[in-house]
Every structure is written in structure tokens, then in C-alpha cells.
Design brief:
The structure holds 2 protein chains of 2 kinds. Chain A is built from 3 helices and 2 strands. Chain A has a two-stranded antiparallel sheet with strand order 1-2. By secondary structure, chain A is α+β, with helices and mostly antiparallel strands. Chain B has an 8-stranded mixed sheet, with helices on both faces. The longest helix of chain B has 17 residues. In chain B, β3 and β4 form a beta hairpin. By secondary structure, chain B is an alpha/beta fold. Helix content of chain B is about 40%, strand content about 15%. The chains are: A alpha+beta, B alpha/beta. Chains A and B meet through α2 of A and α7 of B.
């Protein structure tokens, strides 16, 4: 590395990246604050059931609880893997 | 009426105990009868920061278990007349912290003191929950750094949902933001979250900004709360913070990079 490069070397300003990431994660966590306590357990049990047939990750299951004025909507979204693997043995 | 103030953060190592020690000392120096309680059962440290570690006989858990009276356990600060310390125990008996027990002690302290400062342990377990449960006001200590900001946000959620005031539907806990280990130089370079960034992210009123300073380590080395160090920017920042808490109108300092003149650069301070 030449002397000029050394003098020009600058650390990347990362504070704005930190702020942006925090804004997103805090917003998500705030939304989660009002979720009922059973939601994580519900998610896990659903995952267990789905996993009996298709291999999916916990991240592939989105459970959303929305409050639409008078009624609450529980939305369940499961992303199945793109290329269907061989059907798993269903011995159990 | 005595006020209970919790010093909390969620994340460890951000300066809760340092802040508790200086905040309590500052309140006492202004003539308020103040007690500071270490809620970190099993990991006592406030005594070291306050420089009274060799005078601990009885502790918080002894009083909770009624093995000692409050009078026996309270340690009078050697530098401040109005200041007392209630140390945590070194045993891991976390179950000793019951809601009833803590409430009984706080009520007894309320009869004698103006301010009760609760130094919370890190985390969101029992100790931290008990430290904030009875609070009237909270100092949320935050470093300008992602994990600290996130944890502070989480603690704000707990203050708003799980404190006594929240559960009983009283007026919510009054929250104050305290930013510690602030480095204006790195903020200028865009390497560190600014005061404005943190304020915007947590959206609670700012009580004080404590700049990163070598004097904080020297202060803890010698067991003298940094607020006693009049020459230190951190000490002065804590002094300002206490003044603001008492309702004085004091502008923020140490937010900008200090301009160093040529002579100072050559000869130092």
C-alpha cells in the first residue's frame, strides 16, 4: 500500500447503517409487543406438524396477528421449499 | 414523598453502576437524603464503585430475610453526609428477592429518605424486574451502539408493561435517557450513532450525555464516584445531569469535538 493510499484510507461511516437497522428491528419488535404470549408456542407446534410432511424452517413460517377494527385476523403463511424433496418417510 | 428511581439498561457493561453511584452522590450533595441499593444479588459491585467494600457487614438479602435490620445494613458514605448504600449479597440466593420483601424495605426507606436509587442488574430476570417494579422514575442508560439501544428499547417495553405503575394503571414511570460513553469525534466521522439518532430511536426525553473519559476508570479504580472529580468531563456531565433531574435548566455539554489549540497540542494540558 502506497503512502498516498494510507493517507486516503478512510473508515466507512457506519452509523447510518446502524440507525437504519435499528429502525427496522425496533419497529418489528414493537409490533410483536402486543402479540399474545401463546404465539411462539403456536408457531413451534405448527412447524412440528408441517415438518412431518415437508422440511421447512421456523423462519419459513410467518404467523401474523392483525387487528382489523372489530375482528382479529390470524394469518398463517408457510413458504414451502422450491424443489419438492422426496416425500419423507411417514413412519411415525 | 420519597421517590424511587431505577437505573436500568438491559445490556450489561454500559455504565449502570457508575451512573447509579454518581447520580446518588449528586442528589446527596444537593442536600437530598439519598440511599442507593444494589439489586445485583450474587454480583455485588456498587460497594466497590462507592469505595465502601470493606465496611459491608450485612446486605440487602439479610434485611429481606430479616436477619438484620435496615439500620445495621445501611452503610453511610464517608464523603457525603446524606448518602447511604445498601449493598447486594454475594450469595446466589436470587429467590430472596420477593415482591413483598422488596416492597417492605422500600416502604421503610421511604420514611427516612428523599430519594431511593435502585441500581439494576443487567438482563431482564428477577433482579432486574424487582429493581424496576416499584419505580416512579427510570434512568435508561444507553451506549450509542446497536445492542445497547435495542436492549434499552426492550427495557422501556418492560417499564411500560410490567411495572407496578403499569399493572395498577397509575401514571406511567417517568423515563429519562442517559447516554454514556459518548465519543463526539467518532460521531463526527459517522462511525457512531449521534445523540439525536439515539433520542429518535428510543423517543424518550434526554437527561444527560456522559462523554467517554479516562477518569471513569480512575474513579472506579480508587472507589470514588466520578462526579467527585471536578476536572473530569464525565464528572461534570453527571453534575449537570443531576441538576437537570432536579429541574434546573442546564444546556448539554461535551457533544462536540473539543477544539485543541496549537499550544495545547504541543505542551498538553
Amino acid at each position: 500500500m502506497s503512502l498516498l493510499d494510507y493517507l486516503r484510507r478512510k473508515k466507512k461511516p457506519t452509523a447510518s447503517v446502524a440507525k437504519e437497522r435499528l429502525q427496522i428491528i425496533l419497529a418489528r419488535e414493537h409490533a410483536g409487543r402486543h402479540e399474545p404470549d401463546y404465539l411462539p408456542a403456536l408457531k413451534q407446534e405448527l412447524l412440528d406438524v408441517v415438518c412431518k410432511y415437508v422440511k421447512v424452517d421456523l423462519d419459513d413460517i410467518k404467523v401474523n396477528l392483525e387487528n382489523d377494527g372489530q375482528c382479529e385476523i390470524l394469518e398463517l403463511n408457510i413458504v414451502l421449499p422450491e424443489h419438492e424433496a422426496e416425500p419423507m418417510a411417514m413412519a411415525k | 414523598m420519597a421517590k424511587v428511581i431505577v437505573v436500568t439498561s438491559g445490556k450489561g457493561g454500559v455504565g449502570k453502576t457508575t451512573s447509579s453511584a454518581s447520580f446518588a452522590t449528586g442528589l446527596a450533595m444537593r442536600g437530598n437524603k439519598t440511599v442507593v441499593i444494589d439489586f445485583d444479588v450474587g454480583l455485588r459491585n456498587l460497594d466497590l464503585i462507592m469505595g465502601c467494600e470493606r465496611r459491608v457487614v450485612y446486605d440487602f438479602v439479610n434485611v429481606l430475610n430479616q436477619e438484620a435490620s435496615l439500620k445495621q445494613a445501611l452503610i453511610k458514605d464517608k464523603r457525603c453526609d446524606n448518602l447511604y448504600i445498601l449493598p447486594a449479597s454475594q450469595t446466589r440466593d436470587k429467590d430472596a428477592l420477593t415482591e413483598e420483601g422488596v416492597e417492605r424495605i422500600l416502604n421503610e426507606l421511604k420514611e427516612d429518605f428523599d430519594y431511593i436509587v435502585c441500581d439494576s442488574p443487567a438482563g431482564i430476570e428477577k433482579g432486574a424486574q424487582m429493581a424496576l417494579f416499584f419505580a416512579d422514575e427510570a434512568l435508561v442508560v444507553t451506549n450509542p451502539e446497536v445492542s445497547s439501544v435495542r436492549d434499552s428499547d426492550r427495557i422501556l417495553g418492560i417499564l411500560a408493561a410490567k411495572s407496578k405503575r403499569a399493572i395498577e394503571g397509575h401514571e406511567p414511570i417517568k423515563e429519562h435517557l442517559v447516554i454514556t460513553r459518548y465519543m463526539p469525534k467518532r460521531v463526527d466521522l459517522g462511525e457512531m450513532l449521534s445523540v439525536e439518532d439515539v433520542k429518535e430511536l428510543l423517543s424518550i426525553p434526554l437527561l444527560g450525555v456522559i462523554p467517554e473519559s479516562e477518569s471513569v476508570l480512575s474513579a472506579s479504580n480508587s472507589g470514588v464516584p466520578v462526579i467527585h472529580d471536578d476536572n473530569s468531563p464525565s464528572g461534570q456531565a453527571y453534575e449537570d445531569l443531576v441538576g437537570r433531574f432536579m429541574g434546573e435548566d442546564i444546556p448539554m455539554r461535551f457533544l462536540d469535538v473539543e477544539k485543541v489549540g496549537l499550544l495545547k497540542r504541543i505542551f498538553g494540558t
